[in-house]
Amino acid sequence: MRGLVLTAMLLGAGAAQAQVADLRSTTQFRVCADPANLPMSSDDGSGFENLLAQQFGEWLDLPVSYSWFPSGMGFITKTLRAGTCDVVMGYAQGDELVQNTNHYYTSVYGLVTRRDGPLAGVDHLADPALRGHPVGVVAGTPPATVMARAGLAKDMRGADLFVDRRVKDPLGGFLAGLRDGSLDAAVLWGPLIGPRIKDDPDLQFTPLLKETSGPRMFYRITMGVRPGEQEWKRQLNSLIRRHQDEIHATLRQAGVPLVDDYGKEMLP
């Protein structure tokens, strides 16, 4: 009887694994993405994650297709878990909703200021120079926690973390505030803001590499695949390893600030 139960369990596990494997397309590189999350992704294909997806498609010799859904609650459930796509580009390492590949870049939060502004020389959030100056920050992000602990809560000018970027542009609001003087700084995620100001003569991005307390300011970025799809993950990991220099080149050209795996220094 015990042998029959064990056999049934093994058969059930095998069927579940086959069911997971069957979800992945072998004729397309199917990507889950936000249609209005520039500079990362856009349904017009202009985001840097779109460019990376195209490169991965070429390395796999597969055409790229998309399952579009706004970032935020329900994104993974409605796309990757529903089987409408097979990979999420640009996923932070450690999230339990997906299985992470190896990371393909590491980036950092930073302080965006006017080059000639009063906070142009600030490079850490505990700097007393920040006090009394209006600073934009996205609610719920690690820098918001560090700033609150540093006594800067009254100086923070917040924006929501999850918004439908088809109708709202909180980063655009921060940039407008920096340009018109209603903000003296904004603390933002490098891949979101770096490409938007890389050619701006008036604004600069200073990476927060000197923080010593609170949540870390740097994160390793992976691709997300469904739990159980080990062969698919290994295939993507192999591509990341073999094409790392090309991946970094695409990110640098886009203006994404890159740091080493420990968040200690900027990569050239």
Automatic annotation (TrEMBL):
<protein>
    <submittedName>
        <fullName>Amino acid ABC transporter substrate-binding protein, PAAT family</fullName>
    </submittedName>
</protein>
<dbReference type="InterPro" id="IPR001638">
    <property type="entry name" value="Solute-binding_3/MltF_N"/>
</dbReference>
<feature type="signal peptide">
    <location>
        <begin position="1"/>
        <end position="18"/>
    </location>
</feature>
<dbReference type="InterPro" id="IPR022448">
    <property type="entry name" value="Quinoprotein_dehydrogenase"/>
</dbReference>
<keyword id="KW-0732">Signal</keyword>
<feature type="domain" description="Solute-binding protein family 3/N-terminal">
    <location>
        <begin position="28"/>
        <end position="266"/>
    </location>
</feature>
